[in-house]
Amino acid sequence: MKKDLVLITGATSGIGLELTKIFAKKRCNLILVARDRKKLDHLRRKLRSFYDIEVDFIVKDLTDDDSAEYIYQKVKNSGKTVDVLVNNAGFGDYGKFLDASLEKQNKMIKCNILALTELTYYFAKDMKNKGRGRILNTASIGSFMPGPLMSVYYATKAYVLSFTEALAEEFKGTGIKVSALCPGPTDTGFWKVANGEAVTTINKLKNKSPKDVAKYGYRKMKQGRVIILPGFFTRMAPLFIRLAPRKVVRKIVYKVQKMK
């Protein structure tokens, strides 16, 4: 039986790493994408030693303008076709918009939105030709609300959710299933990148582990769920957001973000 080939961005840490382990345990062949060659090589050797699978990697920064096309061409030139695309790479930034680095905000948009969109476009075309495929996009509970003090990050994740839902409808009948994983507070390295290791009360909530989020996300993706919300708090938040006035929601988020 032919093994699925899974391409995972942001594969060396957090939720991406845990998803990588899950797909490896399921005996899928892997193409791992991240910026750090040493981490990728170490992970490849480790997975190959534990599982009877092929593991390749591509070193690429998804904030580069040509990142998606570069990755797609590398896969195409290898003669392989991707069965499952996991768009997991992404990062955030904490602080007032006008105090932030515009360069970092632009890179965030390129990584969280542009690269994800282009990778989906390239690989979904191949999936459509085959008549089968799965795409898992990592969004966020922040996809459902405005995010004062993390305005661009929340906006990028709102895009990911909206984009995923739209494609899920468009792709009906094509054999392609699309899902958005929307985790709440999770114990990853996110806050170090966002320059806010201890800046919000979200850090003080009972965070879920990346392993638990990945396991839940994988299971619901296989079931064909479009919007995946791991954890009770995460599942309740969108309901509150829909019922509450928008001005109340943004004020609450702003207060939460400001609390030390």
TrEMBL record:
Segments traversing the membrane: none
Taxonomy, superkingdom: Bacteria
Keyword entries, A-Z: Oxidoreductase
Oxidoreductase as UniProt keyword: yes
Gene3D superfamilies in the cross-refs: NAD(P)-binding Rossmann-like Domain
GO molecular function: oxidoreductase activity
Similarity comment: family membership: Belongs to the short-chain dehydrogenases/reductases (SDR) family.
Protein name stated in the entry: Short-chain dehydrogenase
Organism: Eubacterium ruminantium
